[in-house]
Amino acid sequence: MAASFKSDEARFKIALCQMLVTSDKERNIVHARKAIEEAANKGAQLVLLPEIWNSPYSNDSFPVYAEDIDAGGDASPSTAMLSELSRNLQITIVGGSIPERSGDKLYNTCCVFGTDGKLKAKHRKIHLFDIDIPGQMTFKESLTLTAGDSPTIVDTDVGRIGIGICYDIQFQELAMLYAARGAHLLCYPGAFNMVTGPLHWELIQRARAADGQLFVATCSPARDTNAGYVAWGHSTLVGPFGEVIATTEHDEAIVIEEIDYSLIDQRRTFLPFQKQRRGDLYQLVDVQRRNTELTK
Ligand SMILES: NC(=O)CC(=O)C(=O)O
């Protein structure tokens, strides 16, 4: 069950910063800073950035733009900026994702910062984007990146949030696990492309929201048709009935919309999936929890 919220805490504004990403990292960081400040000035308490917002989305770029997030400071100017802004503006930031260097490995990593500027969670993309649709789209993140090995759910001032990065959204089991652990909102920084975007982007967000009866927010880079990888755009917020609450096209935009968590309980009363689920016939196994219990 989702943790309950007092009525004054149930509503807040989310901002989806669909920003243009260039090959100039410093410019990307300045640009993200401005977008976050604008969103906060317009009342957003939660800001979501796109997947790989400080670097071009390419296997050639990931090693060059990667930052050592754990070392922090100068070793990670992108996350230092997110930490500073979340503290100064007193907002929660789900910081899209950046290429992360950790020892000799690279990850596609999303950092969540609380209103005190502290890093609350770090999600390393679990499902790497390795696909081959002949003649249309081939990408192999595993050429450079290592997959994360842990789901990420985090309690923030704006609710319990489950994190996935782009291709992670294709796996409904992860979303249902987050729903079972009481998430109110799933945030997916993502950069779907011109093949998978029109096919799956909205369809899957709506499915994840309708199945889990919770909110789903996505944030894409803006489309740059000159880039090596052309993003679909269409950052979107979906409600717990699977309804699109707010969306945009493919240009730069900051989508700001209210989230009202009281709708979660209301929708779950209307459609009581949780009571009707046939646990005698099928079950979602929380492997992490089971392994923890086994080692006790
Ligand atoms: N960046 C990605 O993971 C892209 C993706 O998932 C897609 O379908 O496109």
From TrEMBL:
Gene3D superfamilies: Carbon-nitrogen hydrolase. GO terms for biological process: asparagine metabolic process; glutamine metabolic process; oxaloacetate metabolic process. GO terms for cellular component: mitochondrion. The keyword Zinc does not apply. One of its GO terms (molecular function) is omega-amidase activity. Residues 12-261 form the CN hydrolase domain. This is Omega-amidase. It comes from Actinidia chinensis var. chinensis. The lineage of its organism: Eukaryota, Viridiplantae, Streptophyta, Embryophyta, Tracheophyta.
